[in-house]
Amino acid sequence: MAALGMIIGIVVGLLVIILIGTFVSIYNSLVRLKNNIEKAWANIDVLLKQRTDELGKLLGAVKGFMKQEKTILLGVTKARTAAINAGTIQEKAKADNQLTGALKSLFAVTENYPDLKSNQNFMQLQTRITSIEESLADRREFYNDSVNTFNIRIEQIPYVIIANMLHYVKKEMFKVSEADKKDVKIDL
Predict the structure, then answer these.
(1) pTM of structure
(2) Which CATH number fits domain 23-181: 2.50.20.10, 3.30.572.10, 1.20.1440.20, 1.10.10.10?
């Protein structure tokens, strides 16, 4: 009888150890995914800041050449201001979409200004902003992959139990606005 009690105690002890190990493993996995999302967003945020800084320089270079394009310059300036003032991830994503659209319009119009296109300062700034845009696209993709993995994981069993205990909720992916999916139309 004592041997049976000892066997039951060992089995219960092993089950407790397995359950604790599983809990710790799941918890650590969810924390890693959450932190990957935060890291991915921080990387996007750094590039958004770099882009707004470069845009200030670009607008300075463009203003003298494009006096009659005030609406486009005003649109870029407003979008840049919105990006600088955005606080939450959703606000920054919305401002980023506006800024991307404004930049498309600006770069499309610059094609009509040969003197501007030959300006070395403008060309360097345009190249730098284009490079930042490409990096942003890569970082957005990594962010969305991280969010997708997290969202899937917190809905899977047994992760859902621990995710609910931690009050983890689905994260929103970085989306492109419908307006940004359309071609830029320029009327001169």
Answers:
(1) 0.75
(2) 1.20.1440.20
Distances (CA, A) of 70 to 59, 65, 77, 147: 11, 11, 10, 39
Q: Which residues contact 82 (CB under 8 A, 6 or more apart)?
A: 94, 95, 98, 99
Cβ proximity of 154 and 30 under 8 Å: yes
Q: What is the pLDDT of residues 40-88, one digit of tens each?
A: 999 999 998 899 888 888 888 787 777 667 788 888 888 888 888 888 8
- What lies within 8 Å, CB to CB, of 123 at 6+ separation is 117
Enter the tokens of residue 98: 């506006």
The pair phi, psi for residue 38, each rounded to 5°, is -65, -40
Structure tokens, 77? 């300036």
Q: 121, 113, 107: which is closest to 75 by C-alpha?
A: 107
